[in-house]
């Protein structure tokens, strides 16, 4: 069955309208508040008082301008009677010069760098300052710098007397990341043409939903299960409508992918409860217990949330491939029976199943390579490895996601055939 010119023009017009409407949704979250991580310094005493009410950090008073009053992390030695309020700014800076000093053995540090910096961003932009960068021999935390480097710095500005303390926190890495991202977007458009543009739109909307809806909702204490399922459904709908338009194959893929992801999440949550997974296997999860918002998280549900999002992309890919295959076979031969259409979808699904299952397993395994090397180096027995909370969590995550992916194939095939009226 061929599509005539009028139908093609209608489909293109429908695609354009869908892209326009969904692109507008990307603009809705913009301007709702300051960028995450940005700290705005109070300009007056009244603003400083308001800032205090919103949770400014307080430390016992010390000599805010002297190095002797501070430890290496920028804290203040206790013992004062009053409290000092400070605001932390995170800015970019350029290293103008570095003077190195080799300390005496009793100082227990490898090297001390006196670093002259030009601040490149924020309210202190253009100012020249110095800080001490200590290299202790702990390669995980130390940050050696050279002249010409661009670095991230933390500036602790003390509101009472205007003094501030500066320390180097990391290298500036975002420039090359932005270039890589730009290359990725150009590649999508160059190879995919209109489909590439649609892909960029869906990526933008997906990121907006995650960073402007999902994460703030979780931080505010909403149920991770409810909010993540809702976001997953919206991402499904938006992606398929933009990529394929308002068509039966899109609806079949939407339903199949949604059910597959939910199955993966429910399975992971159920098995995780039976094997007593805590959801606290990673350092970051434990740190959430001490955030200033005081949110009481259900860490098992957060684990469920991560599994849903982790499996979503692969499941959506499989669902669309199966649905598209059935749609194409039906277009080529509208007289085929349901069994034949279902078989065509399953054939494509089986071909994809192996590679996509590997994708999920390898994605989860790849992030654990250093840990696996430690186990191998110390010849840790399998029973000792598999029963660790961290490893058990990753295994449940991998298997549940893969099971959801595999079940998506027949579910989508049945729905796609059913929507054809067979």
Automatic annotation (TrEMBL):
Question: Matching InterPro entries, A to Z?
Answer: YibE_F
Spell out where the chain crosses the membrane. 176-192, 199-219, 225-243, 250-271, 302-322, 360-378, 398-419
Sorted alphabetically, the keyword list is: Membrane, Transmembrane, Transmembrane helix
Pfam families this protein is in? YibE_F
Signal peptide start and end residues: none
Q: Where is this region: Disordered?
A: 51-81
Q: What is this protein called?
A: Uncharacterized membrane protein
Question: Which organism is this protein's natural source?
Answer: Acidaminobacter hydrogenoformans DSM 2784
